[in-house]
Design goal:
With 82 residues, this protein is α+β, with helices and mostly antiparallel strands. It has one domain: Pemi-like Protein 1, Chain: D. Helices cover 28% and strands 24% of the residues. The protein is built from 3 helices and 4 strands. The strands form 2 sheets. A two-stranded antiparallel sheet has the order 1-2. It has a two-stranded antiparallel sheet with strand order 3-4. It is elongated. The chain starts with a strand and ends with a helix.
């Protein structure tokens, strides 16, 4: 597919069809990289995206329990103050 570079104020831009953006999972921001003279546009995934939903799913399935047993020490019981 060919696309034209268009003037946007003092800058230039590239219009990308909505169908291509949706197919690539691109929303508001992208990651731009250069590789051997090629511009690579990749979707930007936010850190921890989807973690809240995953935690809710784990809780609903009863999978949000500690895997290790309590390893409390004497220090924890006698010297530590909350």
């Amino acid at each position: 597919m060919r696309a034209s570079i268009v003037r946007i104020g003092n800058s230039q831009g590239l219009r990308i069809p909505k169908a291509i953006l949706e197919a690539c999972g691109i929303r508001d921001e992208v990651d731009l990289t250069l590789d051997q003279g090629r511009l690579i546009v990749s979707p930007l995934h936010r850190r921890r995206e989807g973690w809240a939903e995953a935690a809710e799913g784990m809780h609903a399935a009863g999978e949000d329990v500690l895997l290790d047993e309590d390893t409390g020490t004497d220090f924890d019981q006698t010297s530590w103050e909350w």
